[in-house]
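Hey L., structure's done. Input below.
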Amino acid sequence: MNTQPLRPLTGTRLWIAAFGLALINFVVILDTTITNVSVPHIAGGLAISPSQGTWTITSYAVAEAITVPLTGWLAARFGTYRTLVASLVGFALFSVLCGLARTIELMVLLRVLQGLSGGPLMPLTQTLLLRIFPPEKMGVANALWGVTAISAPIFGPIVGGYISDNWSWPWIFYINLPVVLVCLGIIVKLVGRYETATERVRIDAIGLVLLVLFVGCFQLVLDLGREHDWFASNMITGLAITSAIAFGAFVIWELTDPHPVVDLRVLRHRSLWVGLIAMALGFGGMFAMIVLVPLWLQSVVGYTASEAGHAMAFVGVFAVMMAPVAGKAFERFDPRILITGGMLWLVLVSVLRTQWNTDGTFWDYSIPQLLQGFGMPFFFIGLMVFSLSAVPMNEVASAAGLLSFMRTIAGAAGTALSTSMWDNASREARASMTGTLNGVDGTMAQLQAAGMEPEQARGVIERLVEAQAATIGANHVFAVSAVILFIAAWMVWLAPRPRSAPGQVVAGH
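Output:
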């Protein structure tokens, strides 16, 4: 096989290929959140409880988190292009079968298979984007990939809610098929010649088992912890201990095995491991707010799912507009300055949210979403450029897989911990408010004078207290997220300024 570097694509062919790769990344990440608002519809269709319906989310997330870090091994063993095509076909097939499933057992199995197919697509699309773009346009390549990775989790609940309300829940899966067919046609036509060299290596079975055990138990802790009062439950404690032991054994085994299933040796590049830590903190803190804002708007302010979706959608306006600006800026300036600046902007937006109350207008809630879009490309795209800057092209798939894995895990942790923290902070605020309420008797008298029964009046006051307590709890989570983002903003200064674009370092450097 010819391993000589291929010339990058140019002109219309470049942008069509880039669009296809970016769209693949978008639809795969979209599927991590599109089912969130559709769980009640799915549960009704399968005749199960909503809590059982959440397994359609968990099963996909666990499977995806397992296969994402395996991408480097899969690309080395079968080739980047072949792995991409096989994963894409599998993702489309199992998406359609998920829509046809009519039992929860079959749905969970198919969601696992869909996640296993979709996981490698995120790092593979990034790897191939870096191969098809000329060196002077690497910033544009990262910006394009970054826009899809930023916008997909935000638009997932919006698209899922619209489809479930106006069509039927199976269409959240069927909708993937035409998108994948378009992408497949583009990829086969334009990207096939960028296949990478393959190497026949044995399967690291022990490493694979340890990875599945570590990720699976950790995801179950996050998904079930809140329901079972976290470490007050022996089951949750046992899962956490098992995950920790499996993780330690996994790291030791992968660093000593000659053919690891996940190449952790790529972490010798300081910019990569620093970027991984910053990504975990930054994405976890940001995703906590992405999840909490629509929940608060619907459960406390009384917005419908569509209204909350419209408010959330504003975050994508400037995120998309600023992405090419950020891509160009990273080619000219020290990315550490831009990353820190972008994350400090997100801190400011988080602080603005801590002032929210239940009397705000639509624009009071939407403006912070709109402003957040300014900083997101500098944070997210910047971290991707920074993290991969010292990684040679032959290790980009492994490094990109680790970054996608960290983003997936951080998003899951941010979701679980923020909702749990919100519940706890709301309960504490309610207990504090209940003991210090003034003028309750007067308010009761006014409500009864207006024609309410005593029980109705008490119910009104109780709902007011619940709403204020939930708002105080949400503001507490926003404040904690601001602190986490502030810490993450300075992490990049633990590594030197990058000297090259991702994938341009000579192998063996």
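The chain is about 75% helix and 0% strand. The mean pLDDT is 82.

-- N.
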